[in-house]
Amino acid sequence: MSGYNLADTQDREDRRKHLELVSKVVDRMASGSAAAKGWSITVAGAAFGVAVVQSSWFIFLLGVAALAVFGYLDGSYLHTEKKYRDLYAAILRNEIEPLSMDTKGLDGRRLKRDSHRSWSVLGFYGPLAVAGVILTVVAISRADAEHDQPPSHFPNAPAPASPAPEPKTTTMPSSTPAPSTSSASSSPRPAPAAPPGNSLVP
Predict the structure, then answer these.
(1) Which of 62, 85, 71 minimizes the C-alpha distance to 113?
(2) Domain tally for the chain?
(3) Residue 163: inside a domain, yes or no?
(4) Sign of the C-alpha dihedral, residues 68, 70, 71, 76?
(5) Rounded to an integer, what distance in angstroms lies between the CA atom of residue 88 and that of residue 27?
(6) pLDDT tens by residue, 182-202
(7) If we measure between CA atoms, which residue out of 70, 140, 118, 78 comes closest to residue 86?
């Protein structure tokens, strides 16, 4: 038996459920493709940012490799999505066994490499990978230029600190005036006391 008996109510219901199952698979593949694109931007952007700060060409290469991996994964999601779209169309034409999810006979007009070369994969990951390669070449060139500089030249070395000026010592005049000799000599001297026993009694 091939296909559904559209005159039968049960077969029509099974056909509707069959189409729903295939639609859910297509939705999951589309969600996986979108997630791969989002994660590729996050991982590659983080790798490129760290590589620019640290001038590390190795981290640039890790970012480009991450783009290649996510690009392959995205192409695989797209290829599977296309096959299940073909399965959906074949169910509508009533050419598939009831409730069959087999897509092996639907590979003829779509090859996997065609999905990886599609505009939604190559057009997205290609410019990002080219930008990563350009940044890698710039990082390698800058690292070679810094390596060729003479060892006595340190462009990032801080300037030597100038010696601090010595503090100047100033003599302040004393606020306490010196005692004056004229004032000491002009002060009245006390009279000598009379010796005892010589006082006259009237």
Answers:
(1) 71
(2) 1
(3) no
(4) positive
(5) 12
(6) 444 444 555 555 555 544 444
(7) 78
Find all residues with CB under 8 Å of 76, minimum gap 6, and list them: 112, 115
Average confidence score pLDDT of the chain: 76
Answer whether residue 37 is part of any domain: yes
Domain that holds residue 117: 9-147
Helix (H) or strand (E) holding 189: none
Q: Tokens in use for 79?
A: 């290829």
Evaluate whether residue 39 is within a structural domain. yes
Tokens, residue 11: 């077969």
Query: pTM of the full predicted structure?
Result: 0.64
Specify if 61 maps to a domain.
Answer: yes
Contacts for 32-35: CB closer than 8 Å, 24+ residues apart: 32/73, 32/77, 33/74, 33/77, 33/78, 33/81, 33/120
Question: Residue 30: pLDDT band by 50, 70, 90 thresholds?
Answer: very high
